[in-house]
Amino acid sequence: MYKIVFCLFLLFAMGYPSFAQKKLTLADFEQQNTFKAQEVQGIHSSANGQYYTTLENGKRIVKYNYKDGKKVETVFDLDQIEKPAINSFSAYSFSPDETKILLTTNKETIYRHSYTANYYVWNSVTEELTELSAKGKQQEATFSPDGERIAFVRDHNLFVKTLRFGTENQVTTDGKQNEIINGVPDWVYEEEFGFSKAFAWSPDSKFLAYIRFDETEVKQYAMKMYRSDEAARIENTAYPYEQTLKYPKAGEKNAVVSVFAYDIKSKTKVEVDLGEETDIYVPRLKWTADANDLAVMRLNRRQNKIDVLFANPFTGDTRLFYSEKNDRYIAEEFLDDFIFLPNNDYFVVNSERDGYSHLYLYDRQGFEVRKLTDGEFDVTDFYGFDNKKKIFYYQAAKKSPMQREIYYTSLDGKKQGMISPQEGINKAVFSNEFQYFINEFTNLSTPKTFTLYDNSGKLVRVLEDNSRLKSKLAEYAIQPKSFFSFETSEGISLNGWMIKPANFDENKKYPVVMTQYSGPNSQEVEDKWSVNWYNYLAQEGFLVVCVDSRGTGARGEDFRKVTYMQLGKYESDDQIEAAKYLTTLPYVDDSNIAIWGWSYGGLTSLLCMEKGGDLFKAGIAVAPVTHYKFYDTVYTERFMRTPRENPDGYNDNAPLLHPEGITGRLLLIHGSADDNVHLQNTMEMAEALVQAGVQFDMAIYTNRNHNITGGNTRMHLYNRMTDFLKTNLK
């Protein structure tokens, strides 16, 4: 029976006529999660690399054997605890000796990555479940390497809990809302440097290093919050209140950062010498494997030079260990892929110095040993180093920018190869000793599957094949996605995908909805499975198309960074070229083309409508940036420098300053409590449109952030956009 169902699914996915009767609804995506793929959650490798554990039903931690994939035991089961203080948990971590488990529960989101939570510690020896702290919710609770302590942040201060005695020591005392933050990043660091924990234990557990953020001089952004929040069931009041956050906009002051090393035994701390320049970033802290040095990454404000300083944790004295420069900007991959190897003899750097993102090996003295990867492709993730076999593992887009494979190369370069057997998107989670890996795989016709392999690429076991989802898909008439490419008038080859309308007839002409994001190093055109709103639009008679413009990822540094100093220009040029290409197709109604996008995609949609004129009959811009002077320092200045340094780059490609070019019908959408791309962008754009005499539609979602979620919000949003497209594209 399974084989029959799966074959039917493949027939539908490949575009064969469907015998299914069910039609897609918006509720399938925004309320019911009809097509949500099952995942293997909470994967953790055991210390010896022989076992892995997963989180099941938010209550149990189950151990499995890597060798055969079979269940070994239930390590922890909340239902077996007598009168537990919690009903479930969403995450967990083991102490190094695996006798204790730190459980995360009652999470409350702060920003994109950060949250507060209640943490509990399970001691498997004494079989006791105890609260980490009863003095308020915490952030980023983390075991020390020896398992004796847990560090965490509460109310902007850093604490250390000694588990043996149950004592709680306060490391910092100056933390204060909108002034001083210790141990966790401020808004812009979290959003743009992609981390939420700003402290690091030394490998010997003797020191705790942390970053202190002084955001006293950072300007505040205020958002009106309205009590008529149906999703939270908050009653209306006569007056709204303001929610403020420190948000440094392009060219404005950032938080002043400092780094400290806290001695656990003496309970004293020293400040690390970062140099005389204070207008800098510290995007990462790392320790060398021998714990002798704290590695501090010091990034200049222009973000085209990064220094790795070695700090003495006893004195705070520093010396320059490594430096990397770039004519445009340092890629984010450098931050996480700068790795000290376990034996402390080498470290690895991800650099774009030859025009592609590649891994380089250096010795402990800072001299280059050799280039680990080479070719006209980008390394997209570095998994680590097998110290026993002397093998490096990494992910790359070697076959195609739309795919990802898992590769290995030896320390001496004599052994190398690929260990992911299927073509599509492969992501690996390796065991601690690199003997095994769990591969998350998908391609256009295959929902996520999770499989266990050994490090030679031999299949051990299928962990989750989403067979239930495949059976569900067979009940629906779903239009498949297919790839295409074309060449622009400038000779640039661009990749795209399209979903043709239901009951497609090549002799008919169809309205087109173009979707894109277009932001730096992003990708929307990838060989991965999805069923979403776009399939619904195809069912309703639209041809849906997506093209990755210049500036997007996995095609080398020049393709990725051509947008430097002029964000929006080439991206919108290429989307306009894509629309022109579509008009040459016999089944495209060239008088009925719309373009839409969210965030950066909203910016690009507005620019396309302004520059493309009658080419676009309609457009939707959700939470768009309308002038980069409104956006944050880290992101904007990385690609644009400051408004003072680059006024033409900011103004020439700002939708806010060129509204008169829009001839099609426009729908502007924004959440009123968007802490990322502020409502200011849309309100200013609306006024510019009014003064230019351009008619438009507008929808503001009360108290919603950048994701515009909560209650019935998503259903309302997608109904609104669908109705707009149906009304304006005949």
Automatic annotation (TrEMBL):
Signal peptide: 1-22
GO biological process: proteolysis
InterPro entries reported in the protein's UniProt record: AB_hydrolase_fold, Peptidase_S9_cat, Peptidase_S9B_N, Serine_Prot_S9B/DPPIV
GO function terms (MF aspect): dipeptidyl-peptidase activity; serine-type peptidase activity
A Pfam family of this chain: DPPIV_N
Top-level taxon in the UniProt lineage: Bacteria
Sequence ranges assigned to domain Dipeptidylpeptidase IV N-terminal in this UniProt record: 95-447
Domain Peptidase S9 prolyl oligopeptidase catalytic, chain residue ranges per copy: 531-730
Keywords from the UniProt entry: Glycoprotein, Signal
Protein name as catalogued: Peptidase S9
